[in-house]
Amino acid sequence: MRALNLAQSRVYAEHAVRIIPAAAIPMFDPREALEELDYAVGKLGHKVIMIPTALAEGKRDLFAANFYFGCEADDPITACAFDARVVPFGARLRAIFGSDIGHYDVPDMARVVEEACELVERGLLDEESFRGTSVESHAKEILQGAR
Known about the structure:
- The protein is built from 5 helices and 4 strands; from the N terminus they run αβαβαββαα.
- It is α/β, with parallel strands linked by helices.
- 16% of the residues are buried.
């Protein structure tokens, strides 16, 4: 993957205004994935990454159990983390509520959670999944950090 990413950065360098190549990130070992991500984005300047979805089932738990995936509060794509039809091998990802609460386009901070609840109202998330994203994942991390 390193050779491919390096070659793409060189080949497309003069066309960077019009063509943005995607860095290939190997997903068989979390450490290797993070190292290549750091190299491709930090050193080569890639702005887009490509993550293969055909992981070996045995590797599923390495990623699903060890990483949190930040989700914008009102982003309908958040529902994908809980959809067994979308996530390979039916893994349940550890999505964590994220927010643009400090952004200029959020005039009323109290509305952020209200907007996030719209995912439940629209049937994109069930209440259990919403609770796991917005409350339980944060509480679990805080409690584990206190040990």
